[in-house]
Amino acid sequence: MSRKVTRRRALQQLAGWGAGAVLGLGRCEAQRQRPNILFILTDDQAWNVLGFTGRFPFLRTPHLDRLAREGAHFLNAFVTTSLCSPSRASFLTGCYAHRHGVRANEQRDIHPSIPTFPQVLQKAGYETAFIGKWHMRPVSDPRPGFDEWLSFRGQGEYVNPTLNQNGREFQQEGYMTDLLTDYALRWLRRPRRGPFCLLLWHKAVHGPFTPAPRHQNAFADAELPKPPNFDDTFAGKPRWLRRGAFYGQRREQWEQSEGKPIPDALPVGEWNPRNPAHLNYLRTLLAVDESVGQVLAALEEMGQLDNTFILFSSDNGFFLGEHRRGDKRLMYEESIRIPLLVRYPPLVRSGVRIEEMVLNIDVAPTLLELAGAPIPKTVQGRSFLPLLRGEKVEWRRSWLYEYFQEDWLPGVPTMLGVRTERWKYIRYPDLPGELEELYDLEKDPYELRNLAADPAYAEQLKALRGELERLLKETGYGEPLPRIEVKVPLELVLHYTFDQVKQGRVRDASGRGHEGVLTGGRPAQGRRGLAWAFDGHAFVEVPQRPATLSPEIKPFTVGGWCWPEANEGVLVAHGGRSHGYALYLRRGVPHFALRIGGNLALLKAPQAVPLK
Ligand SMILES: [Ca+2]
């Protein structure tokens, strides 16, 4: 490396590293004040699963406690959709799920018309890194907006995971939380000229709850306190809740319970103070806390701790037995509330407790305002910097909650709701005739008494219904996303000609090696030379599922020369019951069927093809 440093470069280096002020140059001073950003996100960590809250007397999280002690703790922080992928996209874009397009897990990335805050920061001169769990479209490849990328496909694995660093995929030995921390530390310590923005988004504490080996035996004598709303009988609540709790909510369970009797109230269960899943969940957090400690120590060592805006949160809450549930998704408090801590001494007094209701969609505009970067017009949240500064500002009094039914989990319906400081209203728009829910959080913080059918609260119910309509309109719920042009490359990804079938294997003439395995049929003379006759039972299978043949990863074109003998049959099919496509003949007419999330779209040719 050259030791020769130009004057300009030297100035840039000084500016970025906080020494600019000694030169007395205005430009450097302005740049010096741009803070670094460190955004640590966990997965499924409930709002009060932190040592200092005292919820679990045996749980120690000294480093997270330090963030709260030396910074701000938001006591009322929420997600607008309590599900991993939609919430992650909301953090990144400042938009509701109905706007950014990520409504379910592992199906798609953020709509390309919506910028993320790292993209904006990168353009504004920040060095950006994403290290951790992305969990939107199920590929591990780098996404736009990041100078450094270290991630994995979908949920990833806790032990010896497959990782992707800047496009290169490999397996690495170790425990996920520790590996992500090591990558983060290495990246942080790199020499750099300007401010950085690091997203360290852990896989922990998502299930399957897998603590680091060193924490497997933690909490040997601990007793889990029973939540006050463990004994929810669901009496007076919507039927779907009791049906799901009684029969199960996954597709098969839900379908099998169709029409079966649903009890008016569920019997109370027995609390297990040594619930192994809950204990492992808490043990999994211990490595995260250590990670926070290591990152804080590294920043301190680098002299960057107080110049770094550190934000810690979780992508959604989690039921640990409340309402006798695990998981999230519902609009009950345990599911929608998240931990939110901010440490940044230049702006935030230590030990501040903030009561205002802030949302995951507020994070993007907050970070952009902090960095002095433009806030895109698409942003629906609001910067909470004024709250951090301790300013008295007019703040939101209510907000919209939304959840979209997932294909594999039909037992949790689409929901819409309003949360105010005191009230909560929930509606199930796809379940006509289903009860609504109304809770007075002041008198009933554990949401056990549904007031929606109580005439004494009719006025309140009416007001909240009206507020929901207002919020839906304000946020553009139900408005279509802008259409995007996807350029499909005319690329030959598979080419079977059947002139060289050997031992039931068909060579792929495209050169991509997608050899096919042939079942049934017989050689025949086609119009374009040797062909294969498919009799309705014969088929060619592509045994491996290479990425080049996965339309979720890369669009491609499928074409073929067929000379049908009969007028019914499948030409090409891919996927399964909820996602997939098929090109087939029905009464000689080519049809193309596409199924996404269980919804079917069908294209039909204007006329039948000539038969042989
Ligand atoms: Ca999650």
What CATH calls the topology of the largest domain is Alkaline Phosphatase, subunit A
Q: What radius of gyration results from the CA coordinates? A: 28 Å
Beta strand count: 25
Question: How many angstroms does the end-to-end distance come to?
Answer: 71 Å
Bound molecules: calcium ion
CATH architecture of the largest domain: 3-Layer(aba) Sandwich
What's the multimeric state?
A: single chain
What is the class of the largest domain in the CATH system? Alpha Beta
Structure description:
- The strands form six sheets. A ten-stranded mixed beta sheet has the order 7-6-5-4-8-1-9-10-2-11, sandwiched between helices. The chain has a four-stranded antiparallel beta sheet with strand order 13-14-15-16, covered by helices on one side.
- The protein is globular, with a radius of gyration of 28 Å.
- With 612 residues, it is α+β, with helices and mostly antiparallel strands.
- The protein has 14 helices and 25 strands.
- The chain starts with 6 loop residues before the first helix and ends in an 8-residue tail after the last strand.
- Calcium ion binds at residues 43-44, 84, 206, 315-316.
